[in-house]
Amino acid sequence: MSPEAEQAIVPSFxxxxxxxxWYEIARLDNRFEKGLEQVTAKYSIEADGTxxxxxxxxxxxxxxxxxAVGKAKFVDPxxxxxxxxxxxxxxxFGPFYGEYNILELDKxxxxxxxxxxxxxxxxxxxxxxxxxxxxxxxxxxxxKALGFATDQLLFIRQANQVExxxxxxxVPEHH
Length: 175
Prior knowledge:
Layout: H1 3-8, H2 15-18, E1 20-28, E2 36-45, E3 51-59, E4 64-74, E5 87-93, E6 96-105, E7 112-117, E8 121-126, H3 133-145, E9 153-155
Antiparallel strand pairs: 1-2, 1-8, 1-9, 2-3, 3-4, 4-5, 5-6, 6-7, 7-8
């Protein structure tokens, strides 16, 4: 992770506000999510204070849902006010933990987030299946400034999605 991204990790957030379902708006492609669309991540707090993570996505080629269940734990001790830093470790495969860093979070509403794991993994998450263009642009600009390859972001199809194109006149296709 770049020193800039390290600096960008949110210093405090309330895990109880973070729980629930997040929709994946965009990602840097990775082998775990190859070919998946309609991807969601659902977080819940376990009795031991860790977060349970359920990632789900639809593979259109296989016409099948794929699900991975993992566990996220906080790296840093709790802040004095009970909030946590956005630095977590997440595991889907036994003892192997990867970074999970919250680089931006819409506070106090928790409507969108920018999350990374190292330099090669990046996600734009939203509480709704669509995120407005200006917010997407803002998060992409931030990610780019932090050294991520934003030109390689994949925008993920969600169910019942309306496709908007910005700044281009759409000409109907002739068949």
